[in-house]
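Narrative summary of target 7.
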Amino acid sequence: MPKVFDNLYPQLIDFGNLYLAWQRAAKGKRGNPSVAHFELHLAEELLQLQAELSTQTWQPSAYQSFYIRDPKKRLISAAPFRDRVVHHALHNVTAMIYRFG
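Modeled conformation, tokenized:
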């Protein structure tokens, strides 16, 4: 891993950051079964994510692809909810760099 991330990685894997990431990823999606399952096992899921990120063994899962009509037909590829939590955790840590960098 490049040295530039040495100071950011502890922030990424911080439990508080992962909890905030879960809150942001779940906003408006609580009715989704995968979000509800994650929430039901919230502490276990976040600790597992933290462990995988800490040991650098986390791997993104396959995206689910589907079509919507809005107003024309478009292919959408969506990350699994668990991966969206990681995306939000990364965004929490890097947003200020890209906003003011």
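The chain has a mean pLDDT of 92.
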